[in-house]
Amino acid sequence: MTSPPRTVPSGTGSRTTATATAGTPAARTGGVLARVRGTGGPRHPGRARRAALPYLLLLPAVLLELLVHLVPMVMGILMSFRSLTQFFIRDWSRAPWTGLDNYELAVDIDRPVGRALLDSFVTTCLFTVLSVALCWLLGTAAAVFTQHSFRGRGLLRALFFIPYALPAYAAVITWAFMFQRDNGLVNHVLHDQLGLGGAEHTFWLIGDNSFWAMLTVSVWKTWPFAFLIVTAALQNIPGDLYEAAALDGAGVWQQIRRITLPSLGAVNQVLVLVLFLWTLNDFNTPFLLFGRAAPEAADLISIHIYQSSFVTWNFGTGSAMSVLLLLFLLLVTAAYLLLTGRGRKDADAR
Questions:
Q1: How many structural domains does the chain have?
Q2: Taking the complete model, does pTM exceed 0.90, yes or no?
């Protein structure tokens, strides 16, 4: 049977009626929802301050980011539309407006400027691919080799981290002395001690050999970063997987192929992208090895843009090249993230 509805005496008034209504489950639920949505009463000042605290802590970093990166980027884009030379350095806003002329000059491969930029771009892409591949290969191999505990592992890991711990300027300048033709350590070991390449010492910092010298320095100082990232990622792979695979008869190479590499997929996605961006934008290595004028075989696009801007004093063309490089990096990064993200979704769906 359904119980009859309660009647509220008329003498209690509207206050009693409101109290009885507020005590129902629906009213209590509505009150909770109202408080969750922020409409159940006045907001406390302390709660508002706590909510704003993270944004206040981020404000100095955001301001510095705007000051250090975004403001120069916007100024560089504006400079790329002007004929900015040494005659307008005091007030670059007075430089004549040229529109897209600087961009047309940079991409016109039939003219010397565009042809030189294309050669530099091809050299940079080849250098980046080789450097990233070798850094990833060496870092992964070293991380897998030192994954299991053995005597002296800590010391070996510390030695691996030395190139990454050294300041870039000290490391590259040291290599520049080692690559000297007459009194460098590289020629002394190869020619004088091992007898390789004949008695005539090799020129490492000029000619075609400059590319391989630059690649050696880049890999030497960058691969420990890949080793560090992969070593940290290997700690998250359960050891039970390797034990089960060993019981099933899987060898070392099969374990690496079936367990290690698939488990490192997400980490490798980020690692390769970071190494690609670092290497493609590397300016310290060619500048410290070769100075302001790198050999043609080692003319990376970063040093090429520097020469176009600060050696020939054509800041407008140099800014246009920088903007084109930025667009290329954005395009490659977006395509890489799209392809790798789609590949991971397909793998998860299987």
A1: 1
A2: no
